[in-house]
Structure formats: structure tokens, C-alpha cells
Amino acid sequence: MSSNSSSKDDDSVCMEKMEHAAVPKTKARDGWQGRMDFILTCIGYAVGLGNIWRFPYLCYKSGGGAFFIPYIIFLLLCGFPLFFMEVAFGQFSSLSPVTIWRICPLFKGVGMGMVIVSAIVCIYYNVIVAWTIYYLFMSFRSVLPWSHCHNSWNDDRCVDGLEGTLNKTMLNITSVNLTKVTASEQFWENHVLDITDGIEDSGSLRWQLFICLSLAWLCVFLCLFKGVKVLGKVMHFAAPFPYLVLLVLLIRGLTLPGAVEGIKFYIIPRWEKLADFQVWGDAALQIFYSVGMAWGGIITMASYNNFHNNAYRDAMLVPIINCGTSIFAGFVIFSVLGFMAHTAGTTVDEVVKQGPGLTFVAYPEAVAKLPISPLWAVLFFLMLYTIGLDSQFGMFETCISSFIDEYPRLLRSKRVLLAAVGCFVEFLLGLPCITQGGIYVLQIMDWYCASFSLMMISLIECLVIAWIYGTERFYKDIELMIGYKPHAIWHYMWRFVTPTVIFGIWLFSIITLGPVTYDGKSYPTWAIVFGWILGIVSLVPIPLMMIIQIINTDGDTIIERVKKLTVPAKTWGPSMEDDREIYIQSLSHNTYTLSNMDGSPVDCEEALLQHKQKIDMNNS
């Protein structure tokens, strides 16, 4: 009697294991419609505004062509390994950054941290896109409004052109009696921003930017409310278009007087700079930010791939294109800055700026001096708009898909509503950034929220996959997808080299992260504290979710519970039925296990048998 009862109990347990471990949702999740959708979307996501306004400045500041050496070294040591890891991670599971931590439930907070970072950056990134929209609208004029001093926002300090005063203008050096400011800088500060004296004075809402921000979020909604089916089609235009514009601008720039001097200034190496620790740190940070690791976007985009897509090939291709874009954009920018310096009769280092100052002051000033200047202005800001939206698509899709994958029964059929609510909430949160003092708020968010926290999230992700899940098992997962094992070098990179490099980058970012400033203006203590809170908030879910998971897991001791939570959940693995059958079969020939909710191992042989029986029953 007890034997039969026990047998029935075993059967029911096996059936339960099969239901949870081997029966995926086959048609619940969309995927890319074409082979190029993923590559183009990843390129659009990774190639952001930083490639245009940060890399060229860093290159100039850090030794010209000599900067390429540490830049490429960190691409090899950090960029490729992390990008490959996240592509394989996302493609294997077909899950977004939160739910994907079925691989190691103890660290589910890592995925939440990724989503928080992306959500915060989405807020202010679309404000920058709104600036480009406003500049784009203002470019459709026969005379560009930032090319002269006859506007209502100009004052007695304004000068047309760059003659003789450029060195004071671009560097904001104040003379004893008079400070001269170019028309483009006054357009930016007095009209677009209508900037106040500090963050204490927020001023009023800029209605022009309110309209532009509304349009930016409307565009995001229209491209994402139907999911990746629409996004993939959009990216067939949005990803290659900036390259076409960059090529046109480069050809035009090379025909200008002074362009060669500008390019020489950009690429001629100053080897002594390689002895500066700051140069190596800046190169590492630039790779980390530009390739897009730890934001969750790469995992999300890869999760829509076909299970047998060649993730290895794609993971090598996208970082190369991304970094090549940065270098290419430098030629475009410096050819025009060379012309700008030539026109003013000064040197290139007197006109170069970084960040918004390059794209919204220096470059527009140079474009205003070109024949048919409105045409070049339209092309330039249309390119910036496209690049900004491409990255915004990836970050916002990360947020949407994370909620849907975490609560599929509740939200998968309500994607349109979720996208609309998400866009509206992010739009409201962005309103403080489009007040007269909004640039100070935006600077705080950019300064703190996507800095040291990203490195910590990435470091934990790398250590968990390499050491807890194990590189050998990860290799087998990749082999299951692409049909062969990657080179053994990745084993050592993921386990030793890359974590060490990430830790070094994290230390560098912490050491060099001083109090936030904008245009030389210091912030009050409360604003700096607020910035640190923004930076830390994405790390809070990691220990918090550890505590919650440990409390909710069965076990006599904490150590026993932790051990159970470091074993992949029984729902971990490929999502499609045929792929999952192969995966379970591969587990049955190895010592690797999945775990039930009580932490006990799933019997893979029994699960596979039950799975086959279920398929036979369905077929009959």
C-alpha cells in the first residue's frame, strides 16, 4: 500500500517537474522577423550620442592617435568578452534582464538594477533628443538663428562670427572689462535653455522643449508599442541613416579650408600621454559606456533572437562597428573644427569642446559658416536625432520587456497600454529637465546614475556566470545554440581577465568621481546627496532581493538556502519546445542540474521521458 502510494507520489512529482522544467511558452513571445533586425538594432542601441560628442574630445585630450591604443586594448579585454557573454546569455534563455536570473535566483536584483539604470537614463536621454528636435526645427530657415546677433535673446556681449575673440569665447575666459560670447552660445544658453544661475532656481517650464519632448516620447511609443516586429523594421532605416549622413558631412568637411589641420590634430599621436593613468582610465570608461554592457539592452535585444542564431559572429561584429563609428565620427567632427579654427585664425584646441557644448554650440557655429548652411544643419541634427532615438529604443524596450516577462499572464496582452503608461510616466519625470534650470538636473542624473553602479552590476554579472553557473556549462549552452564551442580564450577572459579589468574600471570611476559641476558652477550639498542616491538606487535591489529570496526559500540554515538559490531554477533554459528537449537531454549526460522550488534537483532523465510522452499525447 505504501509502496503504491509512494510510486504515485513519485509520478506526480515527475509530472510537476516536467510541467515546470520542460514545457515552455512557445508562442507567447515575439522575435525578430529578419536576420539583420538584431544586428541593426544592436548597432543603433550601442552607437549613441557619446560616440559623437565624447569620444572625439577624449581622443584629442588623451594624445590623439595614441589614445587608440588603450581604447583598442580595453575593447579586447572588456568590450568583446562582456558583449559576447550578454548576447549568449539573452539568446539562450529568450528572457529579459530580470526574469533571466532564473540562472541564479539569488542574484535577481542584478537584473532589477539594470532596468533601474536604463529607466533613469531614459528620462534625461530623451530630453537630449528633444534638444535635437528643437534645433532641427530651427534649422528649416534661410538664415540660421544662431548665426547672428539680431535676435531677442542676444545682448551686447554677442559677437557674429569667430574673429579675434574665439579663444575667449569658446573657453569662457573673462577679460577685465568685457566677456564676448558667440551667437551660437547665446542661442544655446539664452534661448534653448534660457538657463538660470543655478539649480536652486528652477525657473519656468520651457514650452518649446515641452512640445519637443512630447514628440520624442510619441516617437518612442509609436516604434515600440507593437514590440520588436515594428522596431526591427524601423531600425532598417534608423541604424544605417546616421552613417550616410556622417559620410556626407565628412566629404563636405574635407573640402573646407583647415580641415586637414583639424584631422591632424585628431589623429597625430602624442605618445607621452600614454604614461598618464587618466588616459587609460578614460579609454576603459569610454569602452564600457559605448558598447552598452550592464544596461540590460544587449540581453533584451538578444532574447528576441532565434535560438540557433550565430551569437558568436554577431557579438564580434557589433563592438567593432560601434568603436569604428566613434573613430569615424572623430574625422567628421575635427574636419569641421579645423575649418572653424582656420576661419577664426586660431588653433583647433581653442575651439574643441566636449558633451553638449560640442554638438549644440561649437559644431552649429561652424555649420553656420558653410554655404547653404541650413542644409548641413538639418542633416547634422537629423543624424543626432536618429542616433539618440536608436539608443532610446533599446533602453525603453528593456524596461517594457522586463515587466512583461516577469508578469506574462497579466501584461503580455496589454503591451500597448504598458508602453503608453511607461512613456507618459517617463515624460512626466523628464519635465524638471526642461525647465530653465533643467540642465543642472540633467547634469546630476548623467553624472551619477550611470557611472560606478554600472561597473558593479557588470562585475557581479560576470562573476555569477563565470564562477557560480560555470564557464564550462555556459560553453555547453553556447555550443547547443551555434553548434560548436567558442575558443578557450573566453574561459580565461570571463573568469579572470575581464572581472579584474572591470574592478579596475570601477575603482577608477569611484576615485575620479568628484562633486558634480556644470560650466564651472558648483552644486549645493543637497543636490550632490541627491546625485549619490540616484547612483546607489540601482544597487539597492541586489542585497534586498538576496534577503527576500533567502527568506522565501525552504531550508534549515541560511547556508542551505543560499546553496539552493545558486542552482538554476527548473524554469531555466531555452523557451522553445524542441530546443528545450535537446537542452534537457544534454543535462542528463552531465552533472549539471536544475532545481525545484524546494531546492531539490530535477531528475532530467525522468523530465525528458515525461516530455516525450507529453509530445506523443499531443500528437495523438
UniProtKB/TrEMBL annotation:
One of its GO terms (biological process) is amino acid import across plasma membrane. The chain crosses the membrane at residues 38-56, 68-89, 110-137, 207-225, 237-255, 283-304, 316-341, 375-396, 416-441, 447-471, 492-514, 526-551. Disulfide bonds join 149-158. One of its GO terms (cellular component) is plasma membrane. It is a multi-pass membrane protein. Na(+) 1 binds at residues 46-47, 51, 290, 322, 390-391. It is found in: Membrane. InterPro entries: Na/ntran_symport, SNS_sf. It comes from the Eukaryota. Pfam families: SNF. This is Transporter. The lineage of its organism: Eukaryota, Metazoa, Spiralia, Lophotrochozoa, Mollusca.
